[in-house]
């Protein structure tokens, strides 16, 4: 499962590491856009497989930030 940016902005903070187990609704990273902090959350539970961004990276809407393995696999 791919976790994608909902809007354009920069990665302000990453709250997880690869191999972390997360639950639905957990904050994975925080983006900054127009001086607002926007959390990117898990839509379902699973394990973080790959983090494709680092702090300061610019993302456009639809860019893949994190790859997860769903619990429903």
Automatic annotation (TrEMBL):
PROSITE patterns: BIOTINYL_LIPOYL (PS50968). Keywords: Biotin. InterPro entries: Biotin_Carboxyl_Carrier/Decarb (IPR050709), Biotin_lipoyl (IPR000089), Single_hybrid_motif (IPR011053). The keyword Coiled coil does not apply. Residues 1-69 form the Lipoyl-binding domain. The keyword DNA-binding does not apply. This is Biotin/lipoyl-binding protein. It comes from Salicibibacter cibarius.
């Amino acid at each position: 499962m791919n976790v994608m940016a909902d809007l354009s902005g920069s990665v302000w903070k990453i709250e997880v590491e690869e191999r972390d187990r997360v639950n639905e609704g957990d904050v994975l990273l925080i983006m900054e856009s127009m001086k607002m902090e926007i959390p990117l959350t898990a839509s379902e539970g699973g394990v973080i497989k790959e983090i494709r961004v680092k702090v300061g990276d610019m993302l456009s809407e639809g860019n893949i930030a994190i790859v997860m393995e769903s619990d429903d696999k």
